[in-house]
Amino acid sequence: MTVHEIISAIESFAPLVYQESYDNSGLQIGERTMKVSGVLLSLDITEEVLGEAIQRGCNLIIAHHPIIFSGLKQITGKNYVERIVRQAIKKEIAIYAAHTNLDNVIGGVNAIFAERLGLQQTRILNSQTNNLKKLYTYVPHQAADTVRNALFAAGAGSIGRYHECSFNTDGLGTFQPNIDAKPTIGTAGGKRETVSEIKIEVLINQHQEQAILKALFAHHPYEEVAYEIISLQNQNQEIGAGMIGTLKHPVSEIDFLSFVKQQMKTDCIRHTSLLGKPIQRVAICGGSGSFLLKDAIKAGADIFITGDFKYHQFFDADKQIIIADIGHYESEQFTVELLARILKEKIPNFAPLLSNLSTNPVKYFC
Question: 105-126+240-326 maps to which CATH number?
Fold first, then answer.
């Protein structure tokens, strides 16, 4: 199995197009054509993790956090990033990162976070815009079912929990084939034709556009396929930052914080003043989520759980919500289990290894 085959399984779940502009997800070191002897999954890439990969016979490391965030101007070994890059190239170990693209898909980092807390009726907290498109195509009646089914099979027509969604309008289409045409209806150089057609409208996600167009061209009966693609500003219900959901039953603040500490395996929770009311609506964000505080308040969350809040940002809770900072590592540590789950589902006969090391740079003296 090649590097390309393995990382394609991850990218089909979390396409790179959905990573944030500042991010550097994707293949960072190595070649896609390289044969893989073993895969090690880790939250971060440290020198110790690289050593573990070598010791366990793995020549591909898949991590959540990229080892290279910005361009390296030199590789002299003066810091841990340069040393890891040098050693990985020397030992022919490929390094891949699935970072904010894995954060931003609905089944990604925040989904496994929500799963740990038993949240129900979950949805994206801050949905992305400008990555949905509308496809219009015009098809003769007798071919409409064939074309619709091909579009659905390629991923078109999904809206939240609903699939195979389309809108269809009857109408008349006209065309006149020129002498060089090979028309399905009418004759080359013949008269203008008037055909009863169906206008099919479907939503498509940005990352699916090429596959959907390929399906359209392959199954549409016309020599020249009439279609339009329009970019939309709609919020995408399946792409975005953070997540919000509800507990099955309300829980006291103290009991819920104890539950979070246990489930998220954290030694310490920094939080704002308790508000003296039960917790039921919970907002979360794996990693650094302070930028979502206003969204959590607007969504009516009783508590917002994330990492990396700064001192003055705690004041922004303003007695409207509880902020619970459990730590960056702690909020994302189960991402390796998510990566393993994705690979096992996409490649059933393949068994990745989970790192045995904690890469958390923060230590607690309690």
Answer: 3.40.1390.30
